[in-house]
Amino acid sequence: MIRDGVTGGSDPKRACQRFTWPNRFFPYQLDGIGAIISHDHLLLADDMGLGKTIQMIAALRIMLASGTIHDVLVLVPASLMLQWRKELRLWAPEIRVSTVHGSPVERNWQWRVPASIFLTSYHSFAQDFSGRKRSLMSERVWDAVVLDEAQKIKNADTVISCKCKQILRKRAYALTGTPLENKINDLISILNFLQAKLENPNGSDQTNDSPSIRAIHDRVQLRRKKMDVLPQLPPKMVHDIHLELTGMQERAYIRAETEGIMALRNRPKILITHILALILRLKQICNACPETGRSAKFSDLMNRLSQIVSAGHRAIVFSQFTDDVFGCYALADVLKHFNPLVFTGGQSIQQRADVIRRFKDQRDHEVLILSLRAGGLGLNLQDASYVFHMDRWWNPAVESQAEDRAHRLGQTVPVNVYRYITSNTIEERIDLIIQKKRHLFREIVDDVSIDLSGLFSRAELLSILGLEDPEKPGRA
After folding, report:
1. Contact, 430 vs 394, CB < 8 A?
2. Sheet containing 97-100: which strands, arranged edge to edge?
3. pLDDT means per 10 residues in the chain (476 residues)?
4. How far apart are the C-alpha atoms of 40 and 249, rounded to whole Å?
5. What is the pLDDT of residues 237-273, one digit of tens each?
6. How far apart are CA 237 and CA 218, in angstroms?
7. Domain 12-226 and domain 236-247+295-443 have a common topology
């Protein structure tokens, strides 16, 4: 353990004795901690892998110790509960945390124990939060509320989104590297949690040209990109692999597409569910032939992994499917030579944690196969330097989150990302949509951030962590 808050210029021997940190903070993390402390409402939208969780925990620790706040509610996806508990024990060991989970009876007493931080999942919170006047949860006023992976409230009309915005709170913080996933309303919903309502008087959402949205966004978002704050981080190189379907797989795709389109045309009324069902079926066949199991993607992946593993590297493979024909378990069978591990949402939290532990500790597992939705959040997988996307998701932010499980702090070698796209199929059309969404994200999110330059002096930033400036005049 070291008693220091800054990398480089600060001498650990001169650090104050108040806080003990397990590691040094990067300068941009120190800026982030200062911004959290000085703002009652903040959207921390750093790139994935820059340590948003650590910055938030450090800021909460400092504010709790100083008496600025006394109680905190932290809402996270269920898959990140163990990760948050681990980081809280590491970065704020003296703070009492109540982890609210389990049955309704268990959660009832967990909400009532004396603690400074209450950690629970969005799902558990939505079940326990009631609008009844006498409800403990609806009447409690929290000093601070933190939403991790805040894109969970991007849809303003969902139960979870509505209930999060009803929480009585003095401070509100949202953590997400993807505040905008599909459309501007994603961002508006998060800003509504942080600040005032942004709907027009007529009830419709404001457009991305609205001055009020841009002004609030600029005032509350702090966003740093890896390329700007971590020049020492090895690069991430993205490669699109275009493959042709052949043989039975190609014939199965053509037949499914032809018959599916004909069936849609013959329907008296075409529902969105009918369209999505056909798209899903076509995407599955792009992964593997339903009759033979043959796959252009699987064959190419086998060849690439043979070279990658022989060179001493490891890989993670993402698929949106989990079944044993088109998805994760099919891949596990094809790749059994590499002793793969599988991580899916169908596993319990403990089972998933065990999979990650085994991948980190046992080098004989050369490949980790993950379902995109379950494995795309909160994991630290720097042990792998190659990432494969077997199929394309509509949302480019989800893909970026997934691949940045490997491209993050602690990575020491370049990360290669491979995205499979089968030619003359639905995947090519999906890729065009993804490109447009990436452009929207860059336009709305990447170019906005609060200005920290005039907020703190160097001495003030160091003092937040109890450090004296070693360059202060008069010091020996």
Report:
1. yes
2. 97-100, 117-121, 72-76, 144-148, 172-175, 41-44, 221-222
3. 32 43 84 88 83 91 90 89 87 92 86 92 85 58 91 83 87 83 73 63 43 71 79 77 89 91 81 81 92 90 86 87 90 91 85 86 88 66 81 73 69 80 86 72 54 46 44 46
4. 56
5. 788 888 888 899 999 999 998 898 888 888 887 777 7
6. 30
7. yes
344 Cβ contact list (under 8 Å, min separation 6): 322, 328, 370, 371, 374, 375
- The strand ranges marked E within 259-410 are 315-319, 341-343, 367-371, 386-389
| Residues constituting the chain | 476
SS3 content of the chain, % helix, strand, coil (to 5): 45, 15, 40
Number of neighbours of residue 325 by Cβ within 10 angstroms? 14
Question: For 236-247+295-443, CATH number?
Answer: 3.40.50.300
DSSP state of 467: -
Copy the structure tokens of residue 236: 């991430």
Considering the domain 12-226, what is its CATH architecture? 3-Layer(aba) Sandwich (3.40)
CB–CB of 343/369 below 8 Å? yes
Residue among 362, 393, 395, 361 at smallest CA distance from 370: 393
Give the tokens for residue 79.
Answer: 């898959």
CA distance 292 to 249: 8
From CA 111, how far away is CA 411, in angstroms rounded?
38
DSSP string, 98-147: EEE-SSHHHHHHHTTS--SEEEEEHHHHHHH----TT-HHHH-EESEEEE
- Say which residue the tokens 């397990």 belong to: 22
* Domain spans, the chain: 12-226, 236-247+295-443
Please give the share of the chain, as a percent, with pLDDT higher than 90. 20
> How far is residue 248 from each of residues 65, 258, 283, measured CA to CA in Å?
65, 15, 15
Q: Find the helix or strand (DSSP H, E) in which 279 lies.
A: helix 272-287
